[in-house]
Amino acid sequence: MVETDLVRSLLEARIRLTVPIWSIVRESQTVEDIFQEVVLRALKQHDQFTDEGHLMAWSRTTAKNLAVDFLRQRGKSQVMDAGVLDRIWTISDEDAQGLKERQDALRNCLKTVPPRQREMIRLRYGEGLSCAEVATRIGTTLDAIYKRLSRTHSQLRKCVEVALQGETS
Amino acid sequence: MNDAAQSSDLPDDDLLELIIRYHDGQLDEYEMVALMALLEGDDRALSIFHDTALQALTIAEHAAVVAEPKPASPVWRRSTLSWLALAVSVAVVAAIAWSSWQPPYVVRVGDLEGQIVLLNPDGSERQLRHGDLLYDNQHIASRDIGSFATLLFADGTSIQIFDQTEISCRQGAGKEVEVFQGNVVADVAPQPEGHPLQIITLHSITDVLGTVLAIQVSPQRTDVDVLEGKVRVARTGDRSTVDVTAGEKTVVSRKVPLSSRPRSPVGNTWKVDFESGLPREWIKGIWLDQPLPEGSKGGARAEQRPSFWDPAVTWYEVESYNRWSRGICMVNDESRLQMRFFTQRAGWIQMILLTRDPSFKQSDVTYEYIIRNYGNKREAGWHTVDIPLSEFRRTIKDPKIGYSQSPINPPRPGLVIFKVIVSTQHRDLGLIVDEMSITAPGEPPPAAEEQEAAS
Predict the structure, then answer these.
(1) For A114, how many CA atoms within 13 A lie in the half-sphere containing its CB?
(2) From the list B17, B22, B68, which residue is nearest A115 (CB)?
(3) CB under 8 Å to B389, separation ≥6 — which residues?
């Protein structure tokens, strides 16, 4: 594949790759690092990819291996079962267009999150603090953070569903 | 998707909380199995899991949008000159305010030696110096072998960190010290009732009201040795607790029930022969089953690692486990170190012993010995060395004083060896270690340690 086509394909498929990587490593900065590493490795062997399907299959395997390696290097024991990993990658691949639409809707939904919840999710995912650190920063208990985060994710999911239904109706 | 997948009875809120705790790395092994079963067999659970990851990633990528918007400034019609004057005034006021106000620090850096660095969130590092102030949640790491630092809270509580350790400290209603890896001694001043100092690791939370304790953290386990007083240790997985008093220790891991027991004395001998693999938690070395001397079934080839001084330079090392808490063996008057090894060509080999004081109360000390003149320079071959520990020299952290100029200053009897390193530094000699042992006169030959399967 030509290098420019390869980079364009990977950037277009970014969300398909990064969501499963996040599910494994659970650190945004590491997701970025792994995605960049996949692009760099792909560029080094760009002439070996016969088409976009070949590139995507290779990128998926490489990203998965890098993510699992990262967990092992960090001594993290919570590595997903291989079967579950495959299901997560499949759901990303099967609904690539839907994923982009959900993310667009989600960006709008985030603007409707109340300020206190907004601060909590910014600390948790934007700054990458652990839930215990978020609890300390906000001045509440860990269990309360778990409950509030659950509620916020649930509200965001519902908001996205309503937004997508509105688009299709 | 899985055709056989069915919907579980778990309410969405409970499922979401399970997913969020997985994201937070806080599931115990039973919860992890339950989550995996849900994701394997329930399409709805998989969809929610996937959606939550999409949300988390999107929030992270758009943190600026998620951040609370600042109130918009009023638009004033002023001349360019007025704007400039206003900007200068604001800058001056801000500079004065900043110079007179600093957030309260959490710990101050006391004595330190070696590479002790502050890890910035952007991935950069800064070497710390005596007297530096550290704030909430800043990560501090000790990089090189033999490095240490003392961190001092305002109430006199001191936290000593030793080599290859990473921690952060916080001060709220109570003090918190999070140990991500490595070896730490905490000398804790009496804390206010109801607000113990908490030492947090991947596996445990230790409540300390005022005592001295040593903590070693590796990915697999946390060792807590209490030297004075009493602490309460809670396992994060199942929230079981145990009280540990002076002279006792506890090991917190996922596999072993939590209990305290008297600290065992450290033995006088040690042996590792790699016959069926690398021992558990061995740090550097690649197991191989050939080439080996007759009668041997396994060895450890030197593994590459970045140099401590220049990460662009590759070093070659066999590095044992870190047994800071348990100890590998104790130094005796006539202890000797034996090693059978192979090199493709001759060149000097550095043997390093990391030792600690048996009471944990003094800084760790590193000793080294250079093996030379053991064979024909151009020929590959197996060699055996037998070195009295009395010929080791204390490592001097002064680059102007090399090994050859440093005085012989051997480890004193009673010190506890907790790590052994064999290094050829930047020279790839094809080093293979077949076996290593430390022996003492009058002691029976040491038995080789339990090892992992070679596969």
Answers:
(1) 7
(2) B68
(3) B331, B335, B336, B337, B353, B367, B410, B411, B438
Round to the nearest angstrom and report the end-to-end CA distance of chain B: 34
Q: Is A78's CB within 8 Å of B61's CB? A: no
Q: How far B55 CA lies from chain A's nearest CA (Å)? A: 7
Distance, CA of A38 to CA of A46 (rounded, Å): 12
B247: which strand partners?
none
Partner-chain contact A77 B60, CB within 8 Å: no
Grade residue B297 by pLDDT with cuts at 50, 70 and 90: very high
Query: What value does the mean pLDDT take over residues A85-108?
Result: 83
Each residue of B202-256: pLDDT tens digit?
888 999 988 899 999 988 889 999 999 999 999 887 788 999 999 999 999 877 8
Are β-strands B336-343 and B432-439 bridged in parallel, bridged antiparallel, or unpaired?
Answer: antiparallel
B453 touches B277 (CB < 8 A): yes
In angstroms, the CA A125 to CA A133 distance is 12
Which residues of chain A make contact with B59, given a CB cutoff of 8 A?
Answer: 110, 121-122, 124-126
- Measured distance CA(B54)–CA(A19) in Å, rounded: 6
Size of interface A-B (CB pairs under 8 A): 145
Q: What is the pTM of this model?
A: 0.55
Query: What are the C-alpha distances in Å from B105 to residues A97, A107, B98, B171, B368?
Result: 49, 37, 15, 9, 38
Residue to test with chain B: of A29, A76, A77, A101, most B Cβ within 10 A: A77
Residue of chain A nearest B31, judged by CA positions: A78
B103 touching A, CB under 8 A?
Answer: no
Which residues in chain A touch residue B25, judged by CB atoms under 8 angstroms apart?
Answer: 26, 76, 78, 130
Min distance A87 CA to chain B CA atoms (Å) = 7
Task: Supply the DSSP string of B246-267, one letter for each residue.
Answer: TTEEEEE-SSS---EEEPPPPP
Domains and CATH numbers, chain A: 3-88 (1.10.1740), 93-168 (1.10.10.10)
**Residue B50's closest CA among A147, A77, A18?**
A18
Among the listed ranges A17-26, A116-125, B356-365, B430-439, which one has the minimum average pLDDT value? B356-365
